[in-house]
Amino acid sequence: MIKVLRLGHRRGRDDRISTHVGLTARQWGADEIVYSGEKDDKILESQRDIIDRWGGNIEIRYTEDWKSEIKDFEGLKVHLTMYGEKIDEKIAELKERFEEEDLLVIVGAEKVPRWVYTHVDYNISVGNQPHSEIAALAVFLDRIQDSGIREEFDGAEIEVRPSEDRKLTEEI
Amino acid sequence: MIKVLRLGHRRGRDDRISTHVGLTARQWGADEIVYSGEKDDKILESQRDIIDRWGGNIEIRYTEDWKSEIKDFEGLKVHLTMYGEKIDEKIAELKERFEEEDLLVIVGAEKVPRWVYTHVDYNISVGNQPHSEIAALAVFLDRIQDSGIREEFDGAEIEVRPSEDRKLTEEI
User: What is the average per-residue pLDDT within A99-120?
Assistant: First the structure.
């Protein structure tokens, strides 16, 4: 089971980034996506619209109390940050734990409180350069699962037919 | 050599997504990042500011004439799209070609013209679900290079010291 927690969402400024975080989590198999920061029904609704059409049993919700999401989670807690230990050095250990345990992945917006760093099992960097929490999340979920790209989503109304040179979809 | 072409940038709406595309390309070793769509000096400047401080020999520029960027590129041309052939089925072939050839990776905004699909060597999907061009770019560059995360950037004024539980940076 994979849960993704997005910290520090800011309405307006982060709308599209936070939406991409959620859709990326879904593509790589997350079961639950939790947003914190400013409450924003619009980003929850836009993702629910995509799930209605493209399928999947994914819980998407908002919480004000992000500390409890971390403290009460039973399993492996990983915060992705450019300041963390290198993914290359830790991935074997993390994969082993993920075989036995549920996984919580935390991605922040610009300022993540120190509290997060000291209340997770690992602070992991997917590169030590400033880049993108979306990229970090995707590559982390891709590596910890040996390609976690999901093919099947329950209840989908539409599916892509992969093509060499055009856009093909099928209504189901 | 890796070049990344971002198509269809829209000022305002795409600012942060396009910036994340550029920073992700840099983290995974791109040498050149070209933006097309609406001209937007702000996103070029904000990335140049990051490069000034964090280093790297990366050319970042805008072009109106995105067709020439594709037509005139000598090497392997890959368009990332949720409608393309599955990365799992093509990656071995792509890696082989990338050992011999320069690589152009194209990522679009919402509507990519059919012309792009028919003027590249491959249309590749990193998942066939709607998600994020940032995630697709990161995972594609990560896989085609067997971890392309770059560690060293020429001329950096600052570097992260990877840490278990805190933010450590060093001025160089």
Answer: 95
Nearest CB neighbour to B20, from listed A135, A142, A166: A135
- In tens, the pLDDT along A33-50 reads 999 999 999 999 999 999
Please give the Cα distance from B90 to B112 (Å, whole number): 22
Q: Take residue B136 and report the two structure tokens written for it.
A: 């697709």
Partnered with residue B169 across adjacent β-strands are: B160
* Of residues B128, B116, B27, B124, the one with CA closest to residue B69: B116
d(CA B106, CA B5) in angstroms, rounded, equals 5
| Nearest neighbour of A123 by CB, restricted to B83, B132, B164 | B164
pLDDT tens string A5-42: 999 999 999 999 999 999 999 999 999 999 999 999 99
pTM of the model: 0.97
Helices (H) and strands (E) in chain B, counts: 6, 8
Best of A9, A19, A128 to mutate (most B CBs within 10 Å, chain B)? A128
Give the amino acid at A28. W
CB contact (8 A) between residue A137 and residue B135:
yes
ipTM of the predicted structure?
Answer: 0.97
B88-117 residues touching A, CB cutoff 8 A = 88, 114, 117
* C-beta atoms surrounding B137 within 10 Å: 28
